TrEMBL record:
Family assignment from sequence similarity: Belongs to the FGGY kinase family.
Known pathway: Polyol metabolism; glycerol degradation via glycerol kinase pathway; sn-glycerol 3-phosphate from glycerol: step 1/1
Domain Carbohydrate kinase FGGY C-terminal positions: 270-469
A biological process from GO: glycerol-3-phosphate biosynthetic process
Pfam families, per the entry: FGGY_C, FGGY_N
Gene source species: Gossypium darwinii (Darwin's cotton)
Protein name: glycerol kinase
Molecular function GO labels: ATP binding; glycerol kinase activity
Any one Gene Ontology cellular component term annotated for this protein: mitochondrion
EC number: 2.7.1.30
Amino acid sequence: MSKEQTFIASIDQGTTSTRFFIYDKSARIIGSHHVEFTQFYPEAGWVEHDPMEILESVRSCMTKALDKATADGYNVDSGLKAIGLTNQRETVVVWSKSTGSPLYNAIVWMDVRTSSICRKLEKELPGGRTHFVESCGLPLSTYFSAVKLLWLMENKEEVRAALKKGDALFGTIDTWLIWNLTGGVNGGIHVTDVSNASRTMLMNLQTLDWDKATLKTLGIPAEILPKIVSNAEVIGKIAKGWPLFGVPIAGCLGDQHAAMVGQACRRGEAKCTYGTGAFILLNTGTAPIKSTHGLLTTLAFKLGPKAQTNYALEGSIAIAGAAVQWLRDSLGIISSASEIESLASKVDCTGGVYFVPAFNGLFAPWWRDDARGICIGITRFTSKSHIARAVLESMCFQVKDVLDSMHKDAGEKGEVKNEKEEFLLRVDGGATVNNLLMQIQADLLGSSVVRPADIETTALGAAYAAGIAVGVWKEEELFASGQIIKTASIFSPKSSVEWRKKKVDSWCKAVERTFGLADLEM
């Protein structure tokens, strides 16, 4: 006998895998599936995905999650009210409007092939590296979508030809997925949301529309860009040929913004998502705060066309969990990512080893694309365990660097503290299952780390947005509940101030050693 209920689903399209979750009204997962897809590294510093493989991963996840929920007696087909979507940000696709085929692989957010374009623009533009900060809150960097699009326009004949014919469409991964899910060449809807658009370098943070002056300066035609919508509204319905035909897509957010919603971060509250990279966002309320300490001013979320816009300060870290994958896949020190905790736990310190994972440069707050990874302090005493622990510490040091900048930018009035006058960092993402990592983080911060019972807050945030759009949930109820803190695991610091200062000083020395290494001979 099937269980008649109300359901909301979410697509979580990340850097290394796609996942699909089905939730009941109490936000409990009743079906899910995930699929990993191929990473392509054509040259040093280049990272690509196959857009068609990503599409098929979404189809597979939808089908298998639905099958699991149905097998457990849930009538999802009749009870599913809406689907939310969250995605890896900044990654770009250009495709043919007439055929639906990608004109090149997706260029991934961490790809650094555009460094020469960035340097050229820095020299040519009167504002240099910060020329566009006033409009979009972002510095010139290989990280953002606009320069990736410029590279495609300059280097790929197929893209130039499609632009000339008026047959090219541009989008981040959310746009690519929604266009295909809603019909593709047969009437697919070409949209993006305010959070993903805010990461292109092309959206004006005040008007929430494409900035005409920026488009003119960069020579990007407005007609290839998608329409910008809010994070919570009915965008369109799933087309024939897909699982869940006719169900509305009603929520769309970049992954880090979705995690903010999933963590119910109100003004003055921050979260860090530990995934391939690590991303710390502090909700600054309804007014953007300009950073003077190397952070990004960005949009947090806008949960409805008429809802207030929340802004955020963000610190982006390129390599976090990816360093653990490197230990596994490239060095063979571990055979699975989960092994790193037990390996690192065999020692109580790194033995003086410091690892800086500047594989493709350093993001916030350093912004050095000439940096490269180093592992220093190695002696004959150094073991695999010391290196494993140094990798975990590197993730935590980078988060501390960002939070220190955040505290300086936001100031006392911009942060919410608990009754102990302690700033709590909310954490989520796959790596947070590692208790040692979380304890190291608390020790280096000197303040508590809060891990929710459900660490998959990115997918949950997308589901919340879709549910808000169709009336399953109310925004004020989700943000007022306080349930996340009540059911969380809290890691409190056990370290001394003196120990913390010595460790941080040593880390800063190690970071400085990474600068200017990009031109080392192969």
